[in-house]
Specification:
heterodimer, A: 174 residues, Arc Repressor Mutant, subunit A, 2 domains, 9 helices, globular, B: 319 residues, 12-stranded mixed β-sheet, 14 strands
Amino acid sequence: MQHADGAADLEQLLADRGAQLMRAAVLLTGSQQDGEDLLQAALERLLRRGRIEGSTEGYLRRTLYNLAADGWRRQGTWRRKLPVIRASQSPAEPDLTAVVDLRDALMRILHTLPSQQRAVIVLRYWEQLTQAETAAALGCSEGAVKSAASRGLQRMRDLAGSWQVTETELKKAT
Amino acid sequence: MNGDFEELLRDSMEWFAGTARVPSGLAGLARRQHRRRRLAARAAIAAGTAVASAAVVIAVTGGAAGAPRPPARAGGAVQAQTAAYIVRRAERAVSTRNLILEISTPEQVVISQQPGKRPVTSFIPRSVQWGYHYQSRTEVFAAYLRRHGRPGAANTDTEDGPLGKSLASSPSLHRFTETMVNYSDRTWSRGRQLTGLAGGGSAGTACELIDGMTDPRAAGEAFFTSPSYIRSALACGGLSVAGRVRVDGAAAIKLTGTRRLMRLPLTVYVSPATYLLIRVVIGGLRQDYRWLAPTASNLAMLKVRIPPGFRRVRSQDPP
């Protein structure tokens, strides 16, 4: 059992594992600013909880994903307000900007997914957790994880398909 | 295809979030917020029974003849609170590092005056500039200048190419390539030159950096565009919050410059959602800002195109 209110412990945790948590938060929210707000909200939950069983980091991570999956902030982020300019008028000569364009598009699509699906996608493909681990982190069944991952990925594929991405560009990007 | 797509998704997530870092002081912010919520919860319980009687007291005070007006410094306190709030938000604003900055300058007349000298009238042509990392491109539309007595003024399209090697003896200096297309005489040139790019960012507060500038164009170039600059200028008293306004129909926070920042009149408008610049008016010179995602189409705006048939001439800039 650990007490989460120790200032030094919290600072140490953020120094050791903060970057990874922050990256997950940015992926879950779509921007650095909203990611910071999400991580701060998770830290507040940790402080409110006080004593916790097991790993503090584990609790913080679960809280982060659960807040995100519960639609902690439902409004669109600033990135969604930026105009998405489709690549239909791509430059004549292929260049690396197409890769940036494609990645940017995928991240925008990720942030249009329902919050539960987005949390599952980030856990499965960013954190590379198994279905069982993802289910444990989100407190839901493996079936729900499988279904959310499948639907989320399919939705991303469908939307990316309309993005006029050729197989060659996709292979080049990977 | 499935494997490729998942791999691409992982790469994209790495690209999007790979450089994210925890801002310093986040744990402290969370602790303070936690304490505030705890105190607010206790106060709410305590205040519940006092609300009715407090309302009566306020009604009586407000209705009394000669009742004192709210103290003048109440507005100041609100102002200070707003500035502090914006400083905090600006600290946490989105990074501009991965956005393309577009600056549009409409054609306009600017009158500048240095102390003890006669005012100087400048005709500013319409121009659009795009900047991304160390690359930029500028389009200048000079018909306005030609109408105002400068027949030689050229419509130009210039591009600062990628950086070459940095100089070992002077790490703050870099060599870059500039391509210029002159649409008026159908020529183009390319030259390499040195530019003073700050190596590790400028030292000092915003107030120390451009204090005393009297030329709007020079001040405009020196006006930094990042939220951290806005934060620094607010923190050193160089900018103060003037309220919420609308700029071309969009909500904005209006900030005004003080003498601590520059002698020229300065008004800055930032987005309340992102704390990114929307508009800057320095000494009468107006510039509008847009921040664009680095998509292929937007990145293409950084590239200068040399139209067929244009003749190459020597660069006028020193090699």
